[in-house]
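Hi U.,

Before I forget, here's the chain from the pilot set. I'm dumping it here mostly so it's searchable later in email.
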Amino acid sequence: MRRRRFLSLSAAALGAGALRARAGDVVFEVTRSEAEWKAMLTPQEFAVMREEATERAFTSPLDKNYAPGTYLCRGCDLPLYASEAKFDSGTGWPSFFEALPEAVGTRQDRSFFMLRTECHCRRCGSHLGHIFDDGPPPTGKRHCINGVSLVFKPAAA
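Structure:
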């Protein structure tokens, strides 16, 4: 048990260090110091949005939210996903088949010995989740998003 925990923590530390190095190379429209991010986010939100952690599956109330509205970035309030693009992937995370135009940025993620497409808010760089090629039509994509990275704004009645 101790060895497994050590290996998990070591891998997480290596991944977090790599993220900080990459994030330092990009200047986003909305920028904050680490202290400012920590002051405005919970520890879990900070871990996910700024250090690329992943929330536990089936813990986000947004996973089963299908009300009309828009999902915004928790870090800067940029509209990211329309409720019309949301679907139940059965994975335990809010899933969408497409983002709103010009809302997310992507990059290759080679952490954990695999190749994935990471997605983040294009305005503040907050980590959202990953994009996979097993989604429904019309795009065939599944944006698997951490609910803690999002704020839901219901449609006006």
